Amino acid sequence: MFAPNEDTLTKVSTDAAMEFVQAFYTSLQSNRGSISTFYSPATSTILFNGNVVAGGAAVQDIFVSQMPPTHYEVQSLDCQVINQKYPTATATGVKRAAEKSAKDISILVTVSGYAKFGVPKNVPQRVFSETFVLVPAPTNSLGGVAKGKGGKGWLIQSQNFRLVV
Amino acid sequence: MLKLSTATMHNMGRAKVSRGRSRGPDRGAVRKRGGNRVDRDGDFDMDRNVDRGRGGKKARGYSGRGNLMIASTQGRDQRKMSIDRDRTRNAIQKALSDNTTTSQANFGRPAAKSGTSQAIIRGWKQSKASSNPDGGIQSLVAFLEKKMTPSDSKASANTRTRITKWRVEGDALIVSVRPELMFRLLKINGFSFAGAALTIEEYGQPAVGEASTADTKAKLTTFLGKRYFQQTKLLNLSGLGDDPDLVSMGLFSTTSTKSRFFPALMKMWELGFDSPEKCRNAVDSVSLANNQLDDISDVTTLSQTIPNVKNLDLSNNNFKDLEALSGWRWKFRRLEFLDLTGSPLSADPSFKDTMLKWYPKLRILNNTEVRTTAEIAAQGKAPIPVQPAYFRDDSQIAENFVRAFFVGYDNDRNDLVNGIYDNNSTFSFNVNTSIPRASQQNSIPSWDPYIKKSRNILKINHLPAQMSRSYVGSEKIRELWNTLPRTKHPDMAARPEEWLIECHSIPGLPDPSEQCEVGVGGLLIVVHGKFDEISPSKVDTRSFDRTFVIGPGGGARGVRVISDMLTLRAYGGHDAWDPNSQQPNPPGPRVNHPQAPDGYGAPAPGKTDARVQQEQMILQMSFKTRMTLVYSEMALSGNGWNMEAALRNFEELKVQGKLPQDAFLLVM
């Protein structure tokens, strides 16, 4: 059975977290039409300030139609591998143990930073804390990442956003 | 007017006898005549109604839940305070006396031993002699000596009048002569020296050694007593250069004493209070008007001593541009009124926008409303409504976990690790050091105990460091935890508002038995809160965000921690997650005016916006002029509600003595 070493797991997870955070907050700010592509088709719980949101499409809808322009500044970021042998979804079910690689992991990501809501430059900065669980994007029948999701390797399984200051 | 009575001053030596007497219900700051006390050091004792001997037993300053932890914290703070106070005294001593080793006398102790008098000479910089290599000093001194010597005397070199010492400070020359010769020196005032008219004034007071420092402190204390208005929480530091008492102290004669004066004054102010908090809250309004300030460098300490000021009058100064104020860019987070009229920078096209950006609560700028109270209230509202914690537990697993966890983390980390962490558990933490500005705290306690292990991967890019800062397995976690500072989290039952704990289930966790290919289910728990960090010397409060992933485990408690991630940040309170603090129309800011009824200057049903604005102007007029609301309104309405015109009018009438006694507030 494949057993990735610590180096590989650390590299894969930190790269994934960095790339995800970079792309996701950029989309929230300036490419809201792409927000849903960051979400797994089978999301678990998504929370914004305690409000439950149904899934990626609903999050995108809220940001497109209700949210004022928002500026995020990610100031600290950490991640851990939750499951080194995540049962990645495939076209027919989940990957079996023998098919797994270092990319079949789930990743816990925590972010801390500033958020500013609204157009005027003088709106106050709020502090937010956000936790994500990222899981591998489902593979198609050929074992590659399913198309139509912007080619992202990891997708949001669950998310918890809170303004904390 | 408030004044320190001379009797009080003379009683300095036994001032402590009277402490505790006349303990009134008001815990305010400066009292009326006779109520002020000056302690042995000459410090203004504005707020010490509780015997010092009992210091620390009573958790003053807190709402007093009788919480042990807070009480002991307070005790520590007070001990620290008293050390700080001693340090501060020393600093004042230093600031006010000249400890340099030069033989030149200086401010605070002019003519320390020799029994000479000093005079300050200005105007010579404009003379032709100032282009001499020595700046013309030698020839100026020779000129002065010559002019001081009586023309009819047959003076030989020995009997000729001598200037014993001199020094240059900025554009001033300070000379020492024997006291009996001072009158001759002063006669030269107005004489022309190499094409420039000289001004000569007596400088400082002949004083001896330490006594002069104590004297200066007493004078500053008296000055503060005169300039502080407790009822209105106003500290009026306008026109400092014109204050006869300060001028007679020679405080503004030279650039160096001038730059040392304000920090010393601020330290004297702090010493008048027995806690920084009381000091901070004693003042709502500060005026630094009419001080010919080119920038804030001389007065910048104001933002440390009185950071919570709401009304700041900087009118009639000489600030050229925004740069002149930039040191106060992140200060005064509660500023509502700001007056910069009469300075060139007000004409800067970006002036208004910049001030709005710098001061999020700014409402009135240069006597014009720039933000409504509604706009300020709206700032606090999140575009995403704040809901109570989302907590979907499974058989109270998360609840029991969280309750036990933080008690264990505070009291017995070894036991905690043994109980719920195993060889696959991962812990890491990161410090968000960028938060300070969002917090209202003055300074953030150092992150030193943490920073070398912080795994903020935005900053920690190298793989080996990323790996070494991730702690896998109970042994490594235990080892790390034993190096981290001791903590005390608030009691969840007693202080639920200080916690926000959310929880929901999560699928796809690793199965320790490796039997289930699709993984097992568990819980994801996110906790936001605060803790006190306990070190031998002090207690610091910090905020944290902590995420746990827990799954079924074989231990006694039936759960294991899979992931534990901690973020530390500067203390930021708990209002952000309180659904009730996000009400659409919070009450307007309270006005501290002796006459203003509740709601004065704030919007109310049936009150027009125009009236609200008028009331705010009346308040401001009253704060500036000390006139009653009625007279302030008369002054404004009589001048078409033009603040500047009304103020000019007021000054004219005041000078002409045309304002009756009852135009002024009695308490000020």
UniProtKB/TrEMBL annotation, chain A:
InterPro entries: NTF2, NTF2-like_dom_sf, NTF2_dom, Nuclear_transport_factor_2_euk
GO biological process assignments: nucleocytoplasmic transport
Superkingdom field: Eukaryota
SUPFAM superfamilies the UniProt entry points to: NTF2-like
A Pfam family annotated for this UniProt entry: NTF2
Domain spans labelled NTF2: 16-163
Protein name: NTF2 domain-containing protein
Automatic annotation (TrEMBL), chain B:
Subcellular location: Nucleus
Ranges for region Disordered: 1-84, 99-118, 573-610
Domain NTF2 as annotated: residue spans: 397-568
Annotated Basic and acidic residues bias: 36-54
Domain TAP-C: 612-667
Biological-process GO terms, alphabetical: poly(A)+ mRNA export from nucleus
Pfam families to which the protein is assigned, alphabetical: LRR_NXF1-5 (PF24048), NXF_NTF2 (PF22602), TAP_C (PF03943)
One Gene Ontology term, aspect cellular component: nuclear RNA export factor complex
Swiss-Prot/TrEMBL keywords: Cytoplasm, Leucine-rich repeat, mRNA transport, Nucleus, Repeat, Transport
Source domain of life: Eukaryota
Keyword check for Nucleotidyltransferase: no
Molecular functions per Gene Ontology: RNA binding
Principal location class: nucleus
Family from the record: Belongs to the NXF family.
PANTHER family: NUCLEAR RNA EXPORT FACTOR, NUCLEAR RNA EXPORT FACTOR 1
Function: Involved in the export of mRNA from the nucleus to the cytoplasm.
Protein name listed in UniProt: mRNA export factor MEX67
